Amino acid sequence: MTWQVRLIIAVIFLGSVCGQVSYSVPEEMPKGSLVGNIVQDLGLDIKRLKSGNAHVYTGDGTEYIELNKERGVLHIKERIDREVLCGETSPCALHFQIILENPIEYYGITVEIMDINDNAPRFKTTEMRFDVIESSLPGARFVLEKAMDPDVGVNGLQGYSLKPTDNFNLKLHSLPDGTKNVEMVLQKPLDREKQDELSLTLTAMDGGDPQMSGTVQIRITVLDANDNAPICVQTVYKASIMENSPGGTILTTVSASDTDEGSNAKVTYSISNSAEVVAELFQVDPDNGEVKLIGNVDYERAKRFEIDVQARDSVGHSDSCKVIVDVIDTNDNKPVINIMSKSKLISEDSKEGTVVAIINIQDADSGTNGQVNCVMNENIPFTIKSTSINVFSIVSDHVLDRETHSQFNISVTCSDEGVPSLSSSVTLTVQVSDVNDNAPAFENSSYEVHIKENNSPGLSIFSVKARDADWNQNARVSYILEEGTVNGASVSSYVSVNSDSGVIHAVRSFDYEQIKDFQFRVKAQDGGSPPLCSNVTVKILILDQNDNAPQILYPVLSGGSVVAEIVPRSADVGYLVTKVVAVDVDSGQNAWLSYKLLKSTDRALFEMGLQNGEIRTLRQVTDKDAVKQRLTVVVEDNGQPSRSATVNVNVAVADSFPEVLSEFTDFTQDKVYNDNLTFYLVLALAVVSFLFIVSIIAILSVKCYRWRREQLFYKSNGNLPVIPYYPPLYADVDGTGTLQHVYNYDMCRTTDSRKSDMKYVRPCSQSIISLDACGTQTLPHVQQKGANEVSENQVRLVLNHSIIYADLHTY
Ligand SMILES: *[C@@H]1O[C@H](CO)[C@@H](O)[C@H](O)[C@H]1NC(C)=O
Ligand SMILES: *[C@@H]1O[C@H](CO)[C@@H](O)[C@H](O)[C@H]1NC(C)=O
């Protein structure tokens, strides 16, 4: 640094002032530094100085400048600090006088103190602190502390600089008093998240040479503003859960970070799905982001959930992330069996492979849990086949036979392959429908029936029975008498068969003496289409009844002649008088005859051979014995009750014929008597017969009259059709009439009373002769009562279209 001394000489002439001089010195000159040569400048003699005792007068006593009298110069006595001396005042000068005595003179001296740059700008503090919120807007101003520089002028404070200037700029703001405010203006927004503290240096500079400066640190703490949204750590979270997991199961934890701090960084989690179902099933912990199950997840309803979780800070900045929850299937669903189609009936002649049902299986589970297999109960002729995915058909795999199994319970069990496996089952009942595959079968391979002769016609002899293993109509057996001949006559004139019941009726009264047995075939036919039939042989054996009295062949009861056996008086004991010969057309016991002597003129004379009918003498004939002997012989058979015949045997005990004749005249009287008796009997019979015919004609006339009246009545009514009714099976009757007979009989019993009247009458009208139709009604009565109770002159009328017959039995 160069010291420049500038000397300013100013001579001011004042009254009392001898002279005036000015100097200028920089401040801070060392002690003894020359200020100025006053001797020279004031034009004084150096001696005068000594003699005048020159001295410096300052007034206040502070002497910065001293006078060197020997040399006549001013020196710096004390270090001068302009800043202390003048502060900010400028220019700064020291005013003092040099006073001389003898004579008194004084000279004014002004020493201007020149400023040197001896002070750097200085701040009061070393550090300034600011808290600036990061959200402050550009333009925000912060007043800074000013720096102080005691120097003046160019050496004084000249300016400031701020570094770095990334965010802030300096701005000097002039105040009315001429000073300047230093302000820091936010230029670029702060971001706490990038830099939460800034350190700036403010430099204050003066204009001296060399320039001096002072600095202060500005520390800016950037305060957080909630300017950052939370950000999810992952945008997608994946989780899986078994279906039916208990509530409270934690799926995952979502988290979001917020670069703000403190409460601004506090994140709250919530589910933001609009679908209610998600909110019902899941919950997210607002504080820690734990996602947990609160409901029941069912794989079958939803396999996947997407949960939108919103992370949100206190002012509503938010982010969202997705939680994808895959539901894992568990085997919680039974297979469901749906019967798509089934037939309740399967015909027994169906082919193998006939489908009886199609079922559809559904298992809501997936994978192996939903894979279903079906099995069926065993030992039934059906099998289950998988026809397509989840469709099974049940088909027959054997030939069916309704007669052994008419119904099958097919139980199908379907189970899935889950662990543990679930199953369900269903039972189908299939009926096997009948096919006419069984012919009726008679209980016996043949029948042998005994019937007593003299049965009443219409008597039910016996019934055949055939069973048909089929069902219903196919098992409905009708019995048909097969055509045949017995002794040259149609078998139907012997027996008839009730087509429904198989009861065999005798059509006529059998006579053992005419026919001892006969056989015929009965056919059983079922109602199937086509019908099946079988036949059986029925052999009827007629049992003999004791219905014939013994007939005496000898002695012959001839008209007028009297036959007498002649026994010579000389006959010995045991003489065979005669032999009564009798026959009985019955057989067996009924024809086993025994002979007894019923009456005898002389019991002691004759005896009767019980078995052989021989009449022999018991003793010697004597003369006392009458010529005319009369024996009454009874011939009895052995039937129950037995029948008998009597015969009178005339025996003449004589040696000559005239003797015999004279004795036997009373026999002729007997004959006359007998002839008369015969005549009366014939007459009586004729009368009875006549009366009978008359009464029949009378009855029929009355009936026909009534019938005609009824015909008229029905015609006028006009609403009851008179249509003959024939069951279809019997329509083609071959003219024997047997079946129609039976049919008529049935109809009488089954139709109701009002209609039956009419229907009874109808056949009458078609008959050649009109007969009392109600006679038919007596038939069952007769049959039930039996032959023994039938009254006398019972008339049996059997009606049909072509044949009418009447039997008259007289007992
Ligand atoms: C089938 O089931 C029904 C009812 O459970 C039962 O009455 C019938 O006897 C069963 N049939 C067979 C053939 O098992
Ligand atoms: C009766 O049945 C036998 C077999 O039992 C059969 O051979 C015969 O032809 C049948 N007769 C009639 C007339 O149907």
Bound small molecules, by name, code or SMILES, are: 2-acetamido-2-deoxy-beta-D-glucopyranose
CATH class of the largest domain: Mainly Beta
Q: Give the overall shape.
A: rod-shaped
How would a crystallographer describe the biggest sheet?
5 strands, mixed
Description:
The structure is a single chain. The chain is mainly beta and 811 residues long. It folds into six domains: 112 residues, Cadherins (Immunoglobulin-like); 202 residues, Immunoglobulin-like, CATH 2.60.40; 98 residues, Sandwich (Immunoglobulin-like), CATH 2.60.40.60; 103 residues, Immunoglobulin-like, CATH 2.60.40.60; 100 residues, Cadherins (Immunoglobulin-like, Sandwich); 135 residues, no CATH class. 15% of the residues lie in helices and 38% in strands. It contains nine helices and 54 strands. It has a five-stranded mixed sheet with strand order 1-2-8-7-4. It has a four-stranded mixed sheet with strand order 9-15-14-11, with no helix packed on it. A four-stranded mixed sheet has the order 17-24-23-20, with no helix packed on it. Helix 7 crosses helix 9. The protein is rod-shaped and about 275 Å long. The protein starts with 5 loop residues before the first strand and ends with a strand. The relative contact order is 0.05. The N terminus and C terminus are likely disordered. One 2-acetamido-2-deoxy-beta-D-glucopyranose binds next to loops. The site of one 2-acetamido-2-deoxy-beta-D-glucopyranose has 3 residues, from strand 31.
